[in-house]
Design goal:
With 238 residues, this protein is of the alpha+beta class. 16% of the residues lie in helices and 47% in strands.
Amino acid sequence: MYGGIGMKKKSKKVVYTLLIVFLFAMAVMTIVSRIMNESHIPEVETQTPRSGTLVLEAVGRGVTRFGKLEDTRVEETQFFEDTYFVEGYFFEKDYLDNVSVGSMVKLSIEGESIEGTLVAKMYNYREDTMDVLISLPEEKKYAAGCEVEFVLEDARVKYPTCISRELVYEGDDGYYIYVLKEQNSILGNITIAVKTPIHILAQNERAVAVAEELTSDVQVILKGIPLEDGMRVRKREW
């Protein structure tokens, strides 16, 4: 009788020992698997948005047209027959606050600097720009569709949200960036790349100003590796 009890105790001890060994092995395998998975997750570098002043080569853009110049949205619009003019927009809207209809505006067409007459201006709420019509001097003749830039010397404009051009992608639907975000999963907290559309207000060769209010704690991923929306990544630790 006592021998049977002793065998049962010994059997339970063996079972407990095997269970502990099994659980320990599972824990080790989980840790190893996580380490192996982590090693295959691409590392990314990030930057944070900030306010800044951009030195702009242009404060607006447009194209040349030929024909009847009119804009029925604005009462002050003048009408011309068969004239050369520019249809465009100013993304730096404040510049036009003190520029009245009939004033001269500097612009560049195919590298040539000239002045045109502001015929009409109207705020575009959808695009957050100032749409304009500008008549060109009679002696100037350009093919329709020439690209135009409205220029200022050393134009410096301050914007609340600026990011590096190295962060910006361009696709069929416009411009976008990838933002680093945390997400809960069965493995705990992980970080993923989230595709985020942006609207560019102004840009130069180094930086862009965006309409979105990106706070200073937002981490924007630099270009370097191919990214997809929702793709798991990990931030490079220095």
